[in-house]
Design goal:
By secondary structure, this protein is mainly α. 70% of the residues lie in helices and 0% in strands. The chain has one domain: Ferritin. The model has no long low-confidence stretch (mean pLDDT 95).
Length: 165
């Protein structure tokens, strides 16, 4: 069983300590982004206005439900590697790499642009972490990020379809 002062929990996972430390940092970065993305999707869901209200209201809620599941997957992987999941709302807000949701984005078309931008930013960060996880010797975390990336890309497609003719 390996333990390290940079990790919170001991584990028998055979990934080298330095790699696990780096992986937990990656996971916590995406955890912050995922939690922030979830809250931004709910902001759009609650406040969207316009002729496409019901369709966008439902779409944003569907995407948010998937994202909150990813929050749990990412946090649990961090702890499985011996790390501490940094998942409070305050920690997520201070660590998120996503732009803040503009409070004046309530018109359906405005929310679509904001949500698409946030989904794309999150998806791009997750995709980069797939390669980083492989380089660190952790195909399981890479697989988790691949699952998240695939779902985010699908949600982005659904949202972007509202901008295309």
């Amino acid at each position: 069983m390996t333990t390290d002062t940079r990790l919170t929990f001991s584990t028998r996972v055979d990934i080298p300590v330095d790699a696990r430390v780096a992986l937990v940092e990656l996971l916590n970065a995406r955890l912050a982004d995922a939690f922030d993305l979830y809250s931004q999707l709910k902001q759009a869901h609650w406040n969207v206005k316009g002729s496409d209200f019901i369709q966008l209201h439902a779409l944003y809620d569907t995407v948010a439900a998937d994202v909150i599941d990813f929050v749990d997957l990412i946090a649990e992987r961090a702890t499985a590697l011996g790390g501490l999941a940094l998942g409070t709302t305050r920690l997520a807000a201070s660590a998120s790499s996503l732009d803040e949701y503009p409070l004046d984005a309530v018109a359906g078309s405005d929310t679509i642009v904001v949500v698409a931008d946030r989904l794309a930013a999150f998806g791009n960060a997750v995709r980069a972490d797939i390669g980083a996880s492989v380089e660190l010797g952790d195909e399981d975390t890479a697989d988790l990020f691949t699952e998240v990336s695939r779902a985010i890309d699908k949600h982005l497609w659904f949202v972007e379809a509202h901008l295309q003719s």
